[in-house]
Amino acid sequence: MLCPLQQKGFSLRADATIAFVSLNEAYRQRFGRQMCVTDAYRSLAEQQAVYYRRPGFAAVPGRSNHGLGLAVDLCGGVERSGSVEFVWMEKNSKKFGWFHPSWAYSSPFEPWHWEYDPKLGSLLD
């Protein structure tokens, strides 16, 4: 079940949407603006298009967390490693079930890519 994000035109799996809305509110309180989203859920056709357009920067179609509605690509500062926004995300996102996967720190380096794990937030309680 996909649910829309506050950012028009984007959606995620229902539980990921709820967690993202909470993360977004904490981000808004800190930075005075909502998170900037460039990508979220992708249909299989959309994932195929990204995969063939940007080889090495997209998961094999059918294996992407974007296709499962469990990943977002962010902008507004978060996409720059070391920025105040990126560091805030590293420090705070796990409280809401979101994380920057280890592969995204190196090969390929994707500071903008964040994923949702429903178990993550409960591990921090």
TrEMBL record:
All residue ranges annotated as the D-alanyl-D-alanine carboxypeptidase-like core domain in the record: 11-118
Protein name: M15 family metallopeptidase
Origin species: Actinomadura luzonensis
Entry-linked Pfam families: VanY
InterPro entries: DD-CPase-like, VanY-like_core_dom, Zn_M74/Hedgehog-like
